[in-house]
Amino acid sequence: CEIHLIAAARPNFMKVAPLYHALAAQSWCTPRIVHTGQHYDANMSDAFFRDLRLPQPHFHLEVGSGSHAEQTAGVMVAYEKICNQHRPDWTVVVGDVNSTAACAMVAAKMWIPVVHLEAGLRSRDRRMPEEINRLVTDAISDVFWTPSVDADENLVSEGVASERIDRVGNIMIDSYEMMRPQIEAEAGPAKFDLPAGGYAVVTLHRPSNVDQPEVLGDLVRQLLEISRRLPLIFAVHPRTRKKLDEFKLWSELSAARGIHLTEPLGYIEFMALVRSANAVITDSGGVQEESTYLGIPCLTLRENTERPVTVLQGSNRLVKPRELADSIGLVLNGQWPRGSRPAGWDGRTAERCVAALKRRQEQRLTIKRA
Ligand code: UD1
Ligand code: UDP
Question: Whose CA is nearest to atom 3 of ligand 2?
Fold first, then answer.
C-alpha cells in the first residue's frame, strides 16, 4: 500500500514529519513524500527536512512561487504526471496551502482516495486564500482527520458523514514532542544575548497584514513602541521581507535597538525561542497552536481565527494593532491567561492516524474483494 504525503510549504513539514516516521515503521504500507516546491529557500524548506529528520523527498515537483492560479495549476499539472506514473493507494494532504487543494483535486479526479489531515478548520473569512483552500479540500476529501471538536462540528454541518471523520488530535504537537530534547538543549535567546523570559517572538506573513503599506507601516510603528519596553525577536518571512523593503520600512526596523531581526529560523531554533518567551506576536496558524500547547501568551494580529480552541481554551487572543501595547502590558503584569491544553494535543496523533488509516485500508480491501 503506497501513501503519498504532500509537503509544500513551511507549516506542512511539521505536520508531515511525525506521520512519515510513524508510517515508515509499519510493514503494511510505504509512505512517499511529495514536495511540491511551493517553499524552496533553504530556511523555508531544507532546514525542516534536517531538523525533523525527513529523508529527501521521493518526488519533487519544483513548482515555486507565482500567482494563486499559476501555483495551483502548476502543482496540479506536475502532480497528475506523478500519479499517472506512480499511482498511490492514498493521497494525504495537510493544512490549507495552495498545494493542499491542488493535490486533493488531482487525486480526487483520478479516484485516488484523499485524506485531509487538519480538516474542518474554518475562519469563515473568505478573503483569506487559506479559507478557500480549506473549503475546496474538504468538499472533495474522502477521509477527514481533525484536530478538535469544532472541526468535526464544522464538517458535519457541511454535510460530511460522521463515519468519514477521525478526530486524531493535533499533529504539530507530535513534532514538538518528537524534537523536545533537541529544543530543550538549544541555546534559544542566549544567541541574541537575551535572557529567558525577557523578550517576545514576532512572526508576520498574512497578506492582510503585510501586503498594504499603511497596514504594515502601522504594525511596524506598534512594534517599535513595544520594543522600548520588551525586546522583540522578529523572524522575518520572505513575503514580509520583500514588503518591508518595498515599503521602505526595513531600515527603521533594523535600526531599533530593541528589535532583533533575523531570517526565518529552523524549527528547533524557533521553538527554543518560543518556549522561553514572555509572549509571541503572530498571525501564523501553527504558532497559535504551539503557544497554546506551551501556555505562552499569544497575541494574534487577526480579526478571526480558524483555530478557536486556542482562544476559548488556550493562551491565544485576537488583538488589533492599536491594542498591542496594552496587551503586552497585561502579559508583563502577569494578567494574561495561560489556558490549558485541548484534548488530543498529546504527541500521539500520528499513532492515531496510522491506526485509522490501517482500518480504512482493510475496509477498502474487504469491499474490493466482495
Ligand atoms: C504560504 C501559504 C500560507 C502559509 C504560508 C506559510 C498559500 C496561499 N499560502 O504563504 O497559507 O501560511 O505559506 O509560511 O498557500 N518566497 C520566497 N522563498 C520561499 C517561498 C516564498 O522568497 O521559499 C517569497 C516569494 O516572493 C513568494 C512569496 O514569498 O512570492 C509568497 O510565497 P507563497 O508560497 O505564495 O505564499 P506565502 O506567503 O509563503
Ligand atoms: N516556524 C519556524 N521558524 C520560523 C517561523 C515559524 O520554524 O522562523 C514554524 C512554527 O513553529 C510553526 C510553523 O513554522 O511550526 C508555522 O508556519 P507559518 O507561520 O509559516 O505558517 P502557518 O502556520 O501560518 O500556515
Answer: 265
